Amino acid sequence: MSFLTLLPLAIVMIAGPQLLSAIFLATSEDWRRNSALFVFGATLSITLIVTVAYLLGNSVSGGGESSHTGLQIIVLLLLLSAMVSVYLGREEAEPPKWMGKLQSANPRFSFKLGFLLLGVFPTDILTSAAVGSYLSSNDLPWRDSIGFILLTVLLLALPSIAVLALGKRAEAFLPKVRDWMNANSWIVNEAVILLFILLTLNNLLG
Q1: Of these four, 91, 125, 145, 179, which has the most CB atoms within 10 Å of its CB?
Q2: Domain residues of the chain, as ranges?
Q3: What pTM was estimated for this model as a whole?
C-alpha cells in the first residue's frame, strides 16, 4: 500500500487548536520568526513520535505473524481512540483562552507551543503513533512517513504563507478559515479517521 494512504491523516493533525494557533501567530507582532519556530517545533515532535512508534512497532512485529497481527490491532485501537477524542472535542466551538496571548507571543514560546501542541495534544499523539505503527505493521520503510510529516508541516505553515503572499487581505481571510474550522473540522477528521480504520481492517482481515 502506498504511503499516499497516510497523507489524509495530516488534516487530522492540524484541524483544531493547531491551525488556530498558526493563524494567531501569523498575525502576531513578530510573525515571521514566531511562525517559523512554531512549525519547526511541530516538525520535531511529529517526527519524534512517528519514529518512536515505528521503532517500537518493528520490535513487536519481529515476533512473527501473531505479533504482526497484534501490531495492526494496536493501530486500530489508536485510530479508534483518536476518533473518540475528536468526537468529544466537537463542542469546543471557541478557541482556548490562552490563544488570546498568541498575538504578543515571542519566538521561544512559539517553538514550545509547536512542539507540545503537535506532540502532546491527544488527537495528534494518537495519529502520529498510528502512522508509525501502521508503517511497521505493513512492513513499509520509515521514509514513507516523510510525506505525512511534510504535508502536516505545510498545512501548519499555510497561514504565514498566506500573510506573506496576500498581506493585509490575508488578515481578513484567515478569521473566516478559523471560524469554518471551529464549526466543521471535527466532521472532516472523523471521516478521514474512519477511512483509515477501514483500510486497517482490510489489512487485518485480508
Answers
A1: 145
A2: 3-205
A3: 0.79
